[in-house]
Task: structure prediction
Amino acid sequence: MDSAFVIEKFILVAVIFGISLVIAMYSTYAERKVAAYLQDRLGPDRAGPFGILQPLADGVKMFMKEEIIPATSNRWLFIVGPGLALLCACIGTAVIPWGTPIEIGGKTIPLQVTDINVGVLYIFGVVSLGVYGVMIGGWASNNKYSLLSAIRAASQNISYEIAMGLSIIALLLVTNSLSLKEIVDKQHGFWANGWFTWYFFKQPLGFIIFMVCSFAETNRAPFDLPECETELIGGYHTEYSSMKLGFYLFAEYINMFVSSAVMATLYFGGFNYPFMDLAVTHLGQNWASIIGVFALFGKICGFIFFFMWVRWTIPRFRYDQLMNLGWKGLIPLAIANIIITGVVIAIIEKF
Amino acid sequence: MSTQVFYFVATLSIIFSLMVIFAKNPIHSVLYLILTFFTFTVHYVLLNAQFLAVVNFIVYMGAIMVLFLFVLMLLNLNKDTEPSKSPLIKIVGVIAGGCLVVTLIGSLKSASINSPLILKNQGLGLVENLGKELFGPFLLPFELSSLLLLAAMVGAVLLSKRDEVEA
Result:
């Protein structure tokens, strides 16, 4: 392990971390603007032109507010909760390939922090760990409503994780690999051998199941029962104030960014775009790679917009509807998807 | 380097697992158990068993412990609901613990660190090799254990449904 390698990875980690924070910051702004558009309002427009400094103003407000820790709560766990939520949200980006390798001064630099051979499972593990932030915070608040919210979050997370895992199994039957880099490389370009290369066109049902589950895992509407104001006052963060509340809100937006990136990587070709071989021959490897990075971020922004669009379109589920959808709707569908995928692959390979 | 990391993580595992027993609050116990499982994950990574590490991470830390925590939060245990500890139970506990210690010492005596087991295939823990082993030579035990799990699952569903059928 030479120092150049360490510096290279350090810069990459810092850049990715910075980008995910900035995107999360501007997601709050985008959410308010999208909501305003959908509800025929103007949205934030006071801070700077079109209100684009609004996230900064919100951040300053969060930092300046008074920090309150309830007297009866478990002080240590109360602080750990939001920290864990943000940590779990951030570490998911480590295995996502952001682009094809670029060459600087004769040295090839992969635009991925690490390519572990169980990348998909790593993402899955991080997602399943994310619920602890909510659970610990909700319990340490020593508030009945927060506790109820924590319990809801746990049961929702566990239920939808099963369907999510099953939908990934069907995808893995097609990809034959758990490494995210290999999965993206197999979706090279846009069209090959008479069919689209992106896995969305090979696994449409799997994608829909995966997407619904990632809505549930990120606690986004219509699955935001842990923060259902009408029933739980505020949800797991009722007792939180200042930047600890900010951490929870921020973690939700980073989760949204990460799950958008995962959906784009697994089903929509990641950094691949149509005519990418043409771009390599005409513009060179580096420019083609940069276009690929922009293509990936374009897809991610599209998914984030979709998250917001759904939030202001579909009302929140009732709790029994949520459980019915998860256990009686998505899980049988996901199992059927696995069987159909297996049969089709067997037919294609044998005949 | 790897040995030092092992001893550090092993010490952490022992400390956390002791804290599971000594913590007064059941929720704290479960949280320490989660940390213990996390150190186990690190052990698996040190052994180059990446698949096992990630599965341990997902299944134990991400699912089973969430359910433990869920149940404990629902029960909301406190001083009033604590079961009474009669002297008889304490004596039985001491005897059982003593037996465990004797067994542990006996097994540790026969183990020796001078002749460590060396893995023939270093990459055995990688997902591809593990899959080939599981679905090749060990196919029958693997399928049998999956059948056992299915039976347990069906049994659990049946037990929870029984009231409805009778009514």
